[in-house]
Amino acid sequence: MRKILLGLLLISGFVVSAQSRKKVVIMLTYDDAIASQLNVAIPQLDSMGFKATFFLMGNIGKATIPQWRKVALKGHELANHSLYHPCLLTTVKANQANNSGAYTVYMMIREIGEMNNLLFAVDGKTVPRTYAYPCTEVSVGGVNYVDSLRKAGLVKYARIGGGNDAIITDVKKIDPLQVPAWGVPAGVTGDELIAFVKKVQQSGIAGVLMFHGVGGDYITTPAAAHRQLLAYLKQHQNEIEVTTFRQGMDGVAAANHNQ
Asked: Which residues belong to any copy of the NodB homology domain (predicted)?
């Protein structure tokens, strides 16, 4: 009888331990509202039951707005990437009108606010928006606008850039308006994507991936590599929570509050 009770206690202890083990959080994000995301990335995500964040710009129009509306109805997050994606012309070739070096902070904040209005017109959601700095630049006209964005109250969380070591290890050190992310390079392999996730599992709390094209367009992640990553995340869903940027950061913020 004692042996049976001991066995039950050991099993019970294992179950409690397994249930109490914290999952790491992986946030999948995609920039620029490009066709390959609608045609490749989203079908792959949907096949695995994963929700992700899509940072949209003002380039969406009558041909794609109905598609993005359907994406939102599936539970994906539509987020703010500014209206015109201004960047330094030394960073990316673009129209002179979109040169962030010629912007003022007021112009940038106004543009973010107008993009919020466009997003509301697309999905009808009144939840706090999240934001990704165009070209991961936190300055316009040589002036940092992070604190101005904070004061404006237009977004709840904002994503910056980083390398494949840009993982969240200490929630107390994360500025919600400067959340690091790995800017996934063109031609990345599935093994490299999985290695980033494993790094988060080994030494982090959460990690954000920043994709652009998937199976097409630019800064392209091969479709097979993207699918390989999703398969790994699915296989390890007891250890990894895959979620949107806003929901993932809500969890990080809650963990920070509870510490």
From this structure: 20-138
- Residue ranges for the chain with pLDDT beneath 70: 1-21, 256-259
Q: Which domains does the chain have, with CATH numbers?
A: 21-258 (3.20.20.370)
Token pair for residue 124? 């009808």
CA distances from 125 to 37, 96, 128, 199 (A): 21, 33, 9, 34
Torsion of CA 118, 242, 229, 77, to 10 degrees: -10
| Token duo for residue 53 | 């964040």
**pTM of the full predicted structure?**
0.90
> Residue 111 — φ and ψ, nearest 5°?
-65, -40
Q: Which residues lie below 8 Å from residue 16, measured CB to CB, with a gap of 6+? A: none
Residue 241 has which token pair? Answer: 């929570």
Which pLDDT belongs to residue 21?
Answer: 47
How does strand 143-144 pair with strand 139-140? Answer: antiparallel
